[in-house]
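Key result, reporting period 2: structure in, sequence out.
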């Protein structure tokens, strides 16, 4: 084959490099990059197993719950480091820090080494953060997103973590841990000095749209819905928190937020084998799920994950020996224990990044995946 003159060869090579380079750049441009997760809304139904959700479906003639809008569904193993059956402290720690621990411990591994929760890491990275619960905000699940103590009953100490942290929005029960403490310190005064709006009913924060807010609606746990709590409490609190977090996050060094919402009292009624009380609490959390999903629809970059810390009561739905009728609510529900059980619990995921939550997971995987999606260190 006749050799091309050297000068022409170089020119052809240069042209080829430019053409191939151009094609490669075009290909890279056309490969869609994964949309970035900016906001996470993490809903936790305390004690909410699959049969609990099924019984809520049965009671509304199998009309779908809002949770069923989830695009991706998974399962989560719940055991703790020292028990097949976890408590809310160890489960909350797993779901917040990504580490298994012993029952009773909050935010630390069995060797008493503290590990930051995803909320603390988000706060440190400059994201706005929030915590909502209907139990005291010092109770096990919310505590695992703010503090680090060897035992869940150290609630006065857990309250002080709301001073050393700066959670943008806190809504729940448990004011006595802030103003009726063994050390007589009034933590509300300290929080006011730090610029917090402190309120004791939702009306008082109606016009608050940004800034740091703590609203504690009861000395101890809030009343259950059966005992008078507003049926839309969690949905309303989630709406208010999302408004404040959205506005705060726009002023922060990093746009985005992390919000944890606990349906705390599903567990309490399941311990007492009160089916109707439990279903009301699930529906309250389910209404908050609608608020979260609707927010994700309007705000691309928002991920919603719903799960439970464990199942409570060993609830089963058994044949009532009657001819099945979808409107027959007299299904036989049976409970096998007054405590928790070790079965897997569901995960429902919606919005940006939801596809990462399909499959079978350890409870410790959930915050780790969320951290990766937010660009935070997962350890
Ligand atoms: Zn329980």
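The corresponding designed sequence is given below.
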């Amino acid at each position: 084959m006749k050799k091309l003159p050297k000068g022409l060869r170089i020119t052809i090579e240069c042209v080829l490099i430019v053409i191939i380079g151009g094609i490669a750049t075009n290909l890279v441009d056309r490969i869609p990059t994964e949309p970035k997760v900016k906001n996470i809304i993490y809903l936790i139904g305390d004690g909410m197993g699959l049969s609990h959700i099924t019984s809520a479906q049965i009671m509304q003639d199998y009309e779908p719950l809002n949770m069923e809008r989830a695009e991706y569904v998974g399962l989560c193993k719940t055991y703790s480091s020292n028990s097949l059956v976890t408590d809310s402290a160890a489960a909350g720690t797993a779901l917040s820090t990504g580490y298994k621990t012993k029952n009773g411990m909050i935010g630390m591994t069995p060797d008493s080494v503290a590990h930051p929760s995803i909320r603390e890491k988000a706060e440190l990275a400059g994201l706005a953060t929030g915590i909502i619960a209907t139990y005291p905000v010092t109770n096990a699940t919310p505590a695992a997103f703010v503090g680090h103590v060897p035992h869940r009953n150290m609630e006065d100490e857990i309250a002080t973590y709301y001073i050393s942290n700066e959670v943008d929005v806190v809504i729940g029960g448990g004011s006595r841990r802030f103003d009726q403490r063994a050390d007589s310190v009034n933590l509300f005064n300290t929080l006011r000095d730090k610029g917090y709006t402190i309120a004791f009913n939702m009306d008082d924060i109606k016009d608050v749209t940004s800034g740091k807010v703590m609203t504690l609606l009861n000395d101890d746990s809030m009343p259950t819905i059966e005992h008078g709590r507003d049926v839309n409490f969690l949905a309303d609190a989630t709406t208010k928190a999302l408004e404040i977090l959205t506005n705060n996050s726009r002023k922060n060094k990093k746009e985005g937020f992390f919000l944890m919402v606990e349906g705390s009292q599903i567990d309490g009624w399941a311990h007492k084998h009160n089916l109707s009380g439990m279903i009301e609490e699930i529906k309250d959390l389910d209404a908050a799920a609608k608020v979260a999903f609707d927010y994700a629809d309007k705000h691309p970059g928002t991920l919603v994950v719903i799960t439970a810390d464990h199942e409570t009561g060993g609830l089963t739905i058994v044949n009532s020996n009657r001819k099945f009728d979808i409107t027959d609510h007299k299904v036989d529900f049976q409970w096998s224990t007054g405590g928790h059980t070790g079965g897997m619990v569901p995960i429902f995921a919606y919005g940006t990044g939801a596809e990462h939550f399909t499959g079978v997971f350890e409870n410790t995987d959930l915050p780790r995946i969320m951290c990766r999606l937010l660009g935070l260190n997962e350890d």
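Residues 6-30 form the longest helix (25 residues). The radius of gyration is 24 Å. This case is discussed further under Risks and Mitigation.
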